[in-house]
Amino acid sequence: MEIDSGSTAWMLASTALVLLMTPGLAFFYGGMTRAKSVLNMMMMSWVSIIVVTMAWVLYGHSLAFDPVGDGTGPLHKIIGGLDHLGLSGLVDTATKTDGTGMPSLVFSAFQMTFAVITVALISGALADRARFGAWVVFALAWVSVVYFPVAHWVWGGGWLSGLGVEDFAGGTVVHINAGAAALAVVLVLGKRAGWRKDPMRPHNLTLVLLGAGLLWFGWFGFNAGSELAVDGTAGLAFMNTQVAAAAAAGSWLLVEKLRDGHSTTLGVASGAVSGLVAITPACGFVDPWAAFLIGALAGAVCSYAVSWKYRLGFDDSLDVVGVHLVGGVIGAVALGFVAAYPVAGTAQSQGLFYGGPLSQLGVQILGPVAVGLYSFAVSWGLAKAVDRFIGLRVPHDDEVTGIDITTHAETGYDLGTVHAAGVSTVGRPAVPAAQSTRKVGT
């Protein structure tokens, strides 16, 4: 098939946009941590790029998208085949056979960036206390036995796809998957030293806003690029992405004002991200008015959901569960009501508001539940195994001193140095409290 240069150019740009989201996430997460662990937090995102890229090239693409046999057997519903190990056979002018006219290697690169950021999202829950080496091992294991199979279930012709689950750009595959994994790992990892006693406010809200802006910018490639073509649906996804993010940021600020008496910069950043998360599964299936409602609902609900960790007693450092798991569920389930443009030739249907069957709402609930339970269970087992054989958590003294200096021999800010045995180390200077009153990790 002849290559469509327009669609290919758009997909190359979208791939770069999605990859940019992971450094953007590093800024977003880095600013939300305390000053003594900002570099470690950012490194966890950067190393996710390295680890997942290698795994994707060697076997990830095959497990996610290759058929097993003729693609109709029971095993194909669970996992992909091994036809393109090392991306063999995807080079040169090979193109997808779905009519997009896009080189298969471009499609693979695009999907690889989704796997990268999904792993990086989990790291925000582990801030301040996870061993860096243990994180690398966990990331490799998790992407191999959780992300690749789940991507196959929904996008690679697996069992959820066969049932008609709608997930345009990754609400279930990316956000619910990562949020459930984050919850499992923090239950194994335990609470930070001083949690709910010591102040653990974001140390640099400027970095948070910069990261949120990069995420918002990259999300247009994330969502509109998932159409895999330059057409009206890509335009719809683009517009819905903007509408939902703005509506969610606004509703989060409104909740803060009514509840706390002031609106914060951390709130506007987190609100925008919650809207982007919620619209991700729906962006190509709904009208803009529905995107507005989804975003507004996500901003309001997630603004309350981030506090659930205090009631339930788990230390999700940077609100991965409250934003990504909850926001992803809102967007996925909403499709059972407001989906207007299902994919022709599939088992997908319109939502209830458009006269669609109740069964579509059922599968939109089944998808998040199945992926959430699978991700939680396997992630918990992987975290326990890593903790047993390597040790998942840094020593208490290293955690109190600061994981940047004890793990990486670096600090994010040179606020004063002390020389000991010829090695420059940083003491523990007083860091001004963030201006936000929302204590992310308190």
From TrEMBL:
<feature type="transmembrane region" description="Helical">
    <location>
        <begin position="38"/>
        <end position="59"/>
    </location>
</feature>
<keyword id="KW-0813">Transport</keyword>
<keyword id="KW-0924">Ammonia transport</keyword>
<dbReference type="InterPro" id="IPR024041">
    <property type="entry name" value="NH4_transpt_AmtB-like_dom"/>
</dbReference>
<keyword id="KW-0472">Membrane</keyword>
<dbReference type="GO" id="GO:0008519">
    <property type="term" value="F:ammonium channel activity"/>
</dbReference>
<feature type="transmembrane region" description="Helical">
    <location>
        <begin position="12"/>
        <end position="31"/>
    </location>
</feature>
<dbReference type="InterPro" id="IPR018047">
    <property type="entry name" value="Ammonium_transpt_CS"/>
</dbReference>
<feature type="transmembrane region" description="Helical">
    <location>
        <begin position="105"/>
        <end position="127"/>
    </location>
</feature>
<dbReference type="Pfam" id="PF00909">
    <property type="entry name" value="Ammonium_transp"/>
</dbReference>
<dbReference type="InterPro" id="IPR029020">
    <property type="entry name" value="Ammonium/urea_transptr"/>
</dbReference>
<feature type="transmembrane region" description="Helical">
    <location>
        <begin position="361"/>
        <end position="383"/>
    </location>
</feature>
<feature type="transmembrane region" description="Helical">
    <location>
        <begin position="266"/>
        <end position="283"/>
    </location>
</feature>
<dbReference type="GO" id="GO:0005886">
    <property type="term" value="C:plasma membrane"/>
</dbReference>
<feature type="transmembrane region" description="Helical">
    <location>
        <begin position="134"/>
        <end position="156"/>
    </location>
</feature>
<comment type="similarity">
    <text>Belongs to the ammonia transporter channel (TC 1.A.11.2) family.</text>
</comment>
<feature type="transmembrane region" description="Helical">
    <location>
        <begin position="168"/>
        <end position="190"/>
    </location>
</feature>
<keyword id="KW-1133">Transmembrane helix</keyword>
<feature type="transmembrane region" description="Helical">
    <location>
        <begin position="234"/>
        <end position="254"/>
    </location>
</feature>
<protein>
    <recommendedName>
        <fullName>Ammonium transporter</fullName>
    </recommendedName>
</protein>
<feature type="transmembrane region" description="Helical">
    <location>
        <begin position="202"/>
        <end position="222"/>
    </location>
</feature>
<keyword id="KW-0812">Transmembrane</keyword>
<feature type="transmembrane region" description="Helical">
    <location>
        <begin position="289"/>
        <end position="308"/>
    </location>
</feature>
<dbReference type="InterPro" id="IPR001905">
    <property type="entry name" value="Ammonium_transpt"/>
</dbReference>
<feature type="domain" description="Ammonium transporter AmtB-like">
    <location>
        <begin position="9"/>
        <end position="413"/>
    </location>
</feature>
<feature type="transmembrane region" description="Helical">
    <location>
        <begin position="320"/>
        <end position="341"/>
    </location>
</feature>
